[in-house]
Amino acid sequence: MAQIELHPAFVWDCDECGRQNFERAIIPPFQSKADEERAREMLDITSEEGFPVIAPFNVSCRRCGTQFETDVTQIYGDDNGA
Ligand SMILES: [Zn+2]
Prior knowledge:
- By secondary structure, the protein is an alpha+beta fold.
- The chain has one domain.
- It contains two helices and four strands.
- The strands form two sheets. The protein has a two-stranded antiparallel ribbon. Strands 3-4 form a two-stranded antiparallel ribbon.
- It is globular.
- It starts with 8 loop residues before the first strand and ends in a 6-residue tail after the last helix.
- The structure holds zinc ion.
- Zinc ion (ZN) binds next to loops.
- The site of zinc ion (ZN) has 8 residues, from loops.
């Protein structure tokens, strides 16, 4: 069986039409290990939990095209203000 590469992603449901949508998580290209460590600290992600990824700020529904700003408090928490 052939292998396929998996990518981290966010899933969201459209408030207009109900379609389930997926958005690829943004994996920042860190210039150095120190930059990556700083991102982990800001996002409160330990190495055991995986890559520090960034959620998109805006998304649009693949079915109806409605655009939304994203609410990331469930991912990053209220106090990190991402
Ligand atoms: Zn929609």
